[in-house]
Design goal:
Elements: E1 27-31, E2 33-34, E3 37-38, H1 43-54, E4 58-62, H2 69-75, E5 77-79, E6 84-85, E7 90-93, E8 105-106, E9 111-112, E10 115-117, E11 121-127, E12 141-149, E13 152-157, H3 173-187, E14 199-200, H4 206-219, E15 235-236, E16 243-244, H5 249-266, H6 269-285, E17 312-314, H7 315-332, H8 335-349, E18 361-363, H9 364-370, H10 372-376, H11 385-402, H12 405-420, H13 431-449, H14 452-467, E19 501-503, H15 508-522, H16 525-540, E20 543-544, E21 557-559, E22 579-580, H17 581-597
Parallel strand pairs: 1-4, 4-13
Antiparallel strand pairs: 2-3, 5-10, 6-9, 7-8, 7-11, 11-12, 12-13, 14-20, 15-16, 15-22, 17-18, 19-21
Helix pairs in contact: 4-17, 5-6, 5-7, 5-17, 7-8, 7-11, 8-11, 11-12, 11-13, 13-14, 13-15, 15-16, 15-17
Length: 603
């Protein structure tokens, strides 16, 4: 608590209070949380504390064991169970004040005690709220309660608040500081403002933004070995804030693309070598099925799996690997990139249907039992640009390498099918996210075909995105297809339109590169200005932090109006505060570097 409490004396052992004259103090703070257990306070200490309060003292207690009568009656809280750890729960402000409003929602991370109150005023409550900013529902469990005794009072927190060692998890920072002000002014607690660990960098030029981002790859722990020979980990976890040591081929391909581009940009061959080592790690570790007699020949495992063959074949993940390998072959002439990339491109092509579309995921057993012909003749398609569009871009790269017209014909047909059936398009997290992905296939398809129909679709997609472009330059999330999916593995970081959330995992990150491709394809200066505004926004919100895991990175969810990282953290896999190696950092930096090099993915 020492970071946030203005104190005169500090005791590491509560029993030392037995020898103290407590009446020399106006406020006593007790952090009861010790190695996962709430503190059991002795009767002798409770007796002294009770006397201190009766004579006008203020006692703040946090995560103290309140199973017995003396403790529970002192704090006005009786616990039902031992410590619980937050999963998807949030805090709600219980009534209106001049500092904050009833129903406003806050997040924290850590422990809490469930129980019930008596003879208390409840300031904050805890429950499983789905809303992002505000709710009309009451909280089921008490969070902070106040009980009067004689001339004094007790204030009890059932959750890790002032003693929270991860104070960056107290979100949003601006609202927590309003709560601190409330406790200062109305309950006379000598508290300090909670200083943010995660701040936006602001006023960075592009070179500085790129250099900061590359430093993150070297210093954050995201690379198991600095030279790239052991691959790259997936992310800094949204809730735990530590490195998630999963390895995925798509994250490797994004990062390999970045490392190659940065090597060219900085004229540093060591980064080019890092790019090659990342991909070579995938080849040697057996992520791709290279058995010609296998049903999944050419496809990639979704993650580092003990299974010898790919089990879930996601369209976007496989397409990203093919796209990057074939692009890098065209840049470097490395034949292994061509061989491996074309294995995947033809595997995708052989399971594409007659309309140029495909399911979002094909399972190994489906391919074994049904064979590729089933998917070629099927009408099943995801109709989701998140999956479909990236396959079409991979096919364009394959066409450039092979001149096999089937790749271009399939990509063109699939893109037209989606444009002709826009009312049937499906979106995972938001329409803004889906359209930001769709833009890449439209841009590259127009660059190759110069089709007026494709160009018309490109502008329609851009018009929708710019309608949602905030004055800061970021695209605000809009049109959530399933707001009730809170608490599932894949969901958005907003629920309803107008919540002011910008997503850097699925929208603004990819859009930076994709709108650049649209500018290169069309030469339209209006499109270039959209890119400039978006690039300025992303440079401004790059994180500066004392923590190496955060410094130089971008988290998924940024709140545009309060200008801090905050969003609806209901995605249990890739929540609001995740920092992705490939999907976020690598793609954003690649979009910036392509502009600095004045290059397109099709050059």
């Amino acid at each position: 608590m020492k970071r946030v409490v203005s104190y005169t004396h500090y005791f590491s052992d509560i029993n030392l209070l037995l020898k103290e004259n407590l009446h020399q103090y106006s406020v006593i703070f007790i952090n009861g949380y010790d190695n996962g257990n709430p503190m059991k306070v002795s009767y002798d200490i409770l007796e002294k504390l009770w006397d201190f309060i009766d004579y006008g003292g203020i006692l703040y207690g946090e995560l103290i064991n309140c199973e017995d009568f003396p403790s529970s009656r002192l704090f006005g809280f009786k616990q039902d169970f031992t410590v619980t750890n937050r999963r998807l729960e949030k805090l709600v402000i219980s009534h209106d004040t001049q500092y904050c409003k009833k129903g406003q929602l806050l997040e924290w991370q850590g422990a809490f005690l469930t129980g019930f109150t008596f003879d208390t005023e409840r300031l904050l409550d805890i429950d499983h709220f789905k809303e992002t900013h505000q709710t009309s529902d009451e909280g089921q469990y008490p969070g902070i309660v106040v009980k009067k005794h004689g001339k004094g009072k007790t204030i009890f927190s059932t959750f890790s608040f002032l003693g929270n060692e991860q104070n960056w998890t107290l979100r949003p920072n601006w609202l927590w500081n309003a709560v601190v002000k409330w406790l200062q002014m109305e309950y006379h607690l000598p508290l300090q403002s909670i200083q943010p660990i995660i701040q936006k960098r602001e006023k960075s030029d592009t070179k500085q933004t790129i250099d900061n981002g590359m430093d993150w790859f070297l210093k954050s722990g995201i690379l198991p070995k600095e030279d790239g020979s052991l691959g790259v980990y997936e992310n800094i976890h949204s809730i735990r804030s530590d490195v998630s040591k999963d390895r995925r081929p798509d994250c490797h391909s994004h990062t390999a693309l970045l490392f190659y581009l940065y090597g060219e940009y900085a004229k540093d061959p060591e980064w080019t070598e890092r790019s090659h080592r990342l991909l070579n790690y995938l080849f040697k570790a057996g992520y791709q099925d290279t058995d010609p007699n296998s049903a999944t020949y050419g496809f990639w495992k979704w993650f580092q799996s003990p299974k010898s063959k790919p089990e879930q074949i996601f369209t976007d993940d496989n397409s990203w690997v093919a796209l990057v390998l074939l692009y890098l072959y065209r840049k470097t002439g490395q034949t292994i990139y061509k061989e491996r990339g074309l294995l995947t491109a033809y595997a995708l092509l052989n399971t594409q249907n007659k309309k140029g579309l495909r399911p979002e995921c094909i399972r190994e057993q489906e391919l074994i039992k049904k064979g590729p012909a089933y998917f070629q003749n099927s009408t099943i398609a995801s109709m989701n640009p998140h999956f479909e569009a990236i396959a079409h871009v991979a096919f364009i790269q394959a066409y450039y390498v092979t001149k096999d017209e089937k790749f271009l014909e399939t990509a063109f047909k699939g893109t037209l099918t989606m444009l002709d059936n826009k009312s049937d398009l499906k979106f995972m997290y938001s329409k803004t996210a889906g359209y930001s992905r769709f833009l890449l296939s439209l841009a590259d398809m127009y660059a190759v075909t110069k089709s007026d129909t494709i160009l018309e679709g490109l502008y329609e997609v851009l018009d929708y995105l710019t309608e949602n472009q905030h004055k800061q330059g970021g695209i605000e999330e809009s049109d959530n297809p399933d707001p009730e999916r809170y608490g599932t593995e894949d969901t958005g970081v907003f629920r309803m339109n107008g919540e002011g959330i910008a997503d850097q995992l699925y929208t603004n990150n990819f859009l930076l590169m994709n709108v650049w491709e649209a500018w290169k394809a069309t030469g339209d200066t209006k499109i270039k200005k959209i890119h400039e505004k978006l690039a300025h926004f992303l440079s401004n919100i790059q994180i500066t932090s004392q923590r190496k895991e955060f410094d130089g990175a971008w988290m998924r969810s940024y709140h545009l109006d309060s200008e801090e990282y905050f969003g609806n953290n209901g995605d249990t896999g890739w929540g609001a505060y995740v920092i992705e190696s490939g999907w976020t950092n690598a793609i954003i930096l690649s979009g910036l570097i392509l502009k600095e090099l004045d290059q397109s993915l099709l050059d």
